[in-house]
Amino acid sequence: MLSKISIPDGGQVIILILLLISVLALFLTFSQSYLNSSQINLLVERAEENNLEYELVIHNQFTNSYSFSVPNKTIEQ
User: Fold this and answer.
1) pTM for this entry
2) Distance of CA 36 to CAs 4, 12, 67, 72, 75, Å?
3) Higher model confidence: residue 29 or residue 12?
4) Residues with Cβ < 8 Å from 39, sequence gap 6 or more?
5) Which stretches within the chain are classed as H helix?
6) Which long-range contacts (CB under 8 A, 24 or more apart) does 15-18 make?
7) In contact, 27 and 11? CB cutoff 8 Å
8) CA pair distance 45, 75, nearest whole angstrom
9) pLDDT score for 46
10) 23-75: per-residue pLDDT in tens?
11) How many CA atoms lie within 13 A of 64 on its CB side?
């Protein structure tokens, strides 16, 4: 005897899709934050090794988007 397969109704499918989109958005945000933090740490470390003055501005605390500048050179991410 075959067991019955349950097919979710439209409302459940929409909720599952929204949940999947939310989880994906959180994952991408945390990934971007982690990668930007790694870049910031590397830039600051290199600038300090070379005794350079620099300016670091964090534009968004969630994604760690930033501007990093040293005299005559600017890097925006």
Assistant:
1) 0.72
2) 49, 36, 11, 22, 12
3) 29
4) 66, 77
5) 10-49
6) none
7) no
8) 15
9) 94
10) 999 999 999 999 999 999 999 999 999 889 999 999 999 899 999 998 776 56
11) 14
What sign does the dihedral 29-32-35-36 (CA atoms) show? negative
Q: How many Cα atoms occupy the beta-carbon half-sphere of 55 within 13 Å?
A: 10
Cα–Cα separations (whole angstroms), residue 42 to 4, 49, 71, 74: 56, 10, 18, 15
pLDDT reading at 2 higher than 60: no
Instruction: Compute CA distances 18 → 23, 26, 30, 33, 54, whole Å.
Output: 9, 12, 18, 22, 42
CA distance 25 to 12: 20
Q: Is the dihedral of CA 39, 45, 47, 50 positive or negative?
A: negative
